[in-house]
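Lab notebook: predicted structure, single chain.

Context: the supervisor wants predicted structures on file for every construct in the current expression panel, including those that have not yet been purified. This is the next one on the list. No modifications to the sequence; it matches the entry in the shared construct table.
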Amino acid sequence: MSDKIYLRPMTVEDTDLIVSWRNNPRVRNNFIYQETFTREIHLNWIKNHVETGDVVQFIICETGTDRPVGSVYFRDISQVHHKAEYGIFIGEDDAIGKGYGSEACKKACIYGFQELKLHKILLRVYAENQPAIASYEKTGFIREGYLRDEVYTQGAFHDIILMGLFADRLQ
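Prediction complete. Output recorded below exactly as produced.
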């Protein structure tokens, strides 16, 4: 595995950066929740989800420069069912296409299986987001479901693909 990036725990000090990234149209348009993202929303996310253990979130940093370029997270972590939902965004426009997302996905999933003791990691992705789907498949995710007209954003209905990963499929 390459070491172009590393993951570090997200902190409250990352709030302004995350708010800026989440409001980048390229990032926002790939989220199901597309409303303007605010400091208050993020601080509530930390208080109600990260601090409660429902979410584990990391900042993706470039190796060598330590520059933050995005974030990965596990949400809806269930210790009962040993599963969680995975999410990622590359916030810096000049960090797109460098393989950071695929590397971050693999490193985060290793963490999820080894440290969180997950049995399954799942994700939701817009069916038209082919670069993301290819990246997830590169990590070993497989398509498990297809939800037609699942979300209504930007004046249109969009299909969502459900993908899942088990530790023995991690590539």
